[in-house]
Amino acid sequence: MRGGRKNLKRAVEEEFLTLQKGQSIMQVLDLRGSNIIQVRDAKGETSLAIFPAKFQKSMWIKTGNFVVVDDSGREEATESGRKVGCVVTQVLYYDQVRVLQKSPEWPEIFKSTAVESSKQDNTQSHNSQMDENEDSIDDDGLPPLEANTNRLNPFQGESETESDSETDS
């Protein structure tokens, strides 16, 4: 897939997805840092996968999302003692997950979790919108913001120059 982000975005826009040999759908369990994520496959086994740098500023994932992973080198990695055995090839978004849930390629283990997670996301977003409306005056218990002392305020700089020029005249 050459061509940078243009092709990445084009691939995301396609709703229908076909899995090639060695690819499988996995669910993100944990973000480990340094582009390493923990994923669960259709058998319920967990493993570590690398999230390539080409996705860094164009796609984001969080716990519970679904990804397409190339796990063809998984067995070789475990035999050689490496911890990371999979590579993320595509991030699945909500519309793609809905289409895939109806297809036979979708693993049975994820059918209940996808429905539950989408319901939780909907209820959480609805509850957060209600909370924002009710608590619009409250600052969520955060301390007030402090001024950045590393930058000069442009309004202060102008008023000082004007007062200096007036005193000189």
How would you describe this structure to a colleague?
The protein has 169 residues and is of the alpha+beta class. It contains five helices and five strands, in the order αββββαβααα. It has a five-stranded mixed beta barrel with strand order 1-2-3-5-4. Strand 2 (36-40) and strand 3 (46-50) form a beta hairpin. The radius of gyration is 24 Å and the shape is extended. The relative contact order is 0.12. The model is unreliable at 125-137 (pLDDT under 50).
Keyword list:
169 residues; alpha+beta; 5-stranded mixed β-barrel; 5 helices
Topology:
Elements: H1 5-13, E1 23-33, E2 36-40, E3 46-50, E4 66-70, H2 74-80, E5 84-92, H3 94-101, H4 109-134, H5 154-168
Parallel strand pairs: 3-5
Antiparallel strand pairs: 1-2, 1-4, 2-3, 4-5
Family: Belongs to the EIF1AD family.
Pfam families: eIF-1a
GO molecular function, one term: translation initiation factor activity
| Global structural class | alpha+beta
Please state the average pLDDT score: 76
Number of helical segments?
A: 5
**End-to-end distance, in Å?**
68 Å
Q: What is the H/E string? A: HEEEEHEHHH
- Are there runs of 5+ residues with pLDDT below 50, and where? 125-137
Organism: Solanum verrucosum
GO molecular function: RNA binding; translation initiation factor activity
GO cellular component, one term: nucleus
Domain S1-like: 12-84
Short summary of the structure?
With 169 residues, this protein is of the alpha+beta class. It is built from five helices and five strands; from the N terminus they run αββββαβααα.
